[in-house]
């Protein structure tokens, strides 16, 4: 009973339900929606957002946010292109390691600024979003790297499948599983929830808030780095504009997936399902020939309803608390 | 300020006493020029429940924060089990075996009860993963020991304060705490919950824990505690064995300072009723508040922090809602929940926290002083800086605000001068009723007297004044009438002549006996 309750609080279930309903309705309207090639495209489209959403969820759970991930992804993606261009024979695993370290460093900058300056992460990462983008623009200029410039095996990661799953999607699934286990079963993961749930209490409890928040930003940066490398594998070209605007899609996916923007609740699995839902909606609205304008509006409605549900739940709790607190005056 | 030694059993000397769980001697803590604690001294033995009592501002909270590792004392000798300690963080305090239970426990609302108890030290299995089954079982065991059934799997959000405290106590036990500090734990509890808490506390004492119990309720202190330490004005006054003292003796020590004629309100003719409050009630906060204030009269709302005084003041002014009752100003019903209606009707409100609520710290003195006049100063909707300064100069001069320019940000002024700017802001509206909440908090003694002279002056001009104050000398010196609040109700009313430090304090703390 209590585990069932826990399940529903995490809200992974209703989001997953919405996803299933969406797929069923769309495939009734347009049967080709579930053709093997279409399913593969759905997974490929969702992959990068899933990984970004997992990283973002880590940060949001601590009651922070990272708006610079679009710029970080752009930097790493362009860096990956440059790396292959400069050293055509570089081993692919090394490229992944380099991309994640690069992302982690950029995440560390965010983390340091947020924990040291005690300024809301929203403002700090809005600033670094522009700074990172500026660095990328002056680095890339008008230069672009195309998928044809990269080694074949690298591009194959986004084409080849394993039991029907594209390789990069499998990478995303492994990431989700590993981070989910960490958040659920490791003390440090639970600390992140505690910090987001009540930052002051966390300090009183002697939880080491600063290193934990810093680590969340670094992890988010590293995962964004991973997504950046995969982006280069998946898409045709990378340049100065790569990843622009992605941060808001990712925050939307995380919130829709049941991670409260005020921290403390939600799961990375929920965030990942939210990412799949949002990217599937776009495809399914296209498949059912819904106007482009309505596509965006529907995403907006989803976000608002997710936030509304959060608010109603927390108001109910607050009311309960007030009633039980009322003294016998 | 004389500290007469009245110790029945003086604090243990340097000799290591196996009985003593915790001893703090001569601890001091200052914040800039403000001395929060001058001589914090306390000794808690194993197997005793030790009460710490004192007025608001006596330094109890500061002392607790030092024990909790939140404040680092400037000086003093701090020992746990005879060993000198110097905490740098709450974690140090916890490691040393001190657990603090606050009036409002600070749990993680989104985590489960079991996780709240074990956060940061959850039991782990061989792989290093958290063993949730084991954690649940241990939590259940703790609640069985305490005799309180709480579901370890539910989230903490929505738990009653009493249950939250039990969870804190469960955590303290699981930490094997040697000293349990309870900071006014009963303030928000019902009678049954208090009994349950006391049962738990006695149980822990009998198992050898030392408990420091901070409370304003004498009946609780005398029913539960073995010894009582009294503090006043940031200083240790004395320690007594409960059996050897009486409530009046303790009250006398708590308030016993020379009151003198520091804050004399001048006699002003008392006119017609300005404000009538009738049966004002807000569920769980205050109930059935009925009183009148007349022109030229200063009515003090005395009582302890949390008694509901500020809440009543805010409700009258319309910032907070109330569930029942009415407010009448000069015979006309005041629209509830509307500060604008209150201001239009002629009420001014000087809030407790002037930095947050009374002033716009970044704006100039002139702008702050004329904030309430924006409408009347504006011409075609635009405010001219010249007219603004002229209006401001008038009032700031009358109140003798010391600033070299009207254009300086108000944040550059001293606390007392800031308070004068807040007063100027309201006086410019020519109010009929002025509500002042802790008018001299954080203001130095000299300026304090000036603020008091001002209030007295205003009363002399026929303004009715409600003064919320936690400082007894201020209440006794300024008020024509004193209303004492206790747990959301007016427990006693004293005329100026009848009010004494002892009977006001007694009404504020032990209303159940008086009423």
Can you walk through the features of this model?
The complex is a heterodimer of chains A (329) and B (515). By secondary structure, chain A is mainly α. Chain A has one domain: ABC transporter involved in vitamin B12 uptake, BtuC (Orthogonal Bundle). Chain A is built from 14 helices and 4 strands. Chain A has helices at 2-10, 12-29, 36-61, 69-86, 92-117, 121-140, 152-156, 167-185, 187-197, 199-204, 209-234, 246-256, 268-287, 292-325, and strands spanning 145-146, 161-162, 165-166, 237-238. Chain A has a two-stranded antiparallel ribbon with strand order 1-4. Chain A has a two-stranded antiparallel ribbon with strand order 2-3. In chain A, a hairpin with a 2-residue loop joins strand 2 and strand 3 (165-166). In chain A, helix 3 runs parallel beside helix 8 (167-185), helix 5 (92-117) runs antiparallel to helix 11 (209-234) and helix 12 crosses helix 13 (268-287). Residues 1-8 and 323-329 of chain A have low confidence and may be disordered. In chain B, the strands form 5 sheets. Chain B has a 6-stranded mixed β-sheet, sandwiched between helices. In chain B, strands 16-19-20-13-21-22 form a 6-stranded mixed β-sheet, with helices on both faces. The model of chain B is unreliable at 1-16 and 511-515 (pLDDT under 50). With 515 residues, chain B is of the alpha/beta class. Chain B folds into 3 domains: 20-105 and 179-255, P-loop containing nucleotide triphosphate hydrolases (Rossmann fold); 262-346 and 432-515, 3-Layer(aba) Sandwich (Rossmann fold); 354-430, no CATH class. Helices cover 34% and strands 25% of the residues of chain B. In chain B, helix 4 packs across helix 5 (161-174) and helix 8 (247-255) crosses helix 18 (501-509). In chain B, a hairpin with a 3-residue loop joins strand 11 and strand 12. Classes of the chains: A mainly alpha (329), B alpha/beta (515). The A-B interface holds A 2-3, 6, 9, 181, 184-187, 190-191, 193-194, 196-198, 200-207, 264-265, 317, 320-329 and B 68, 70, 89-91, 94, 106-111, 115, 119-122, 124, 128-130, 151, 153-155, 157-161, 188-191, 283-284, 286-287, 487-489.
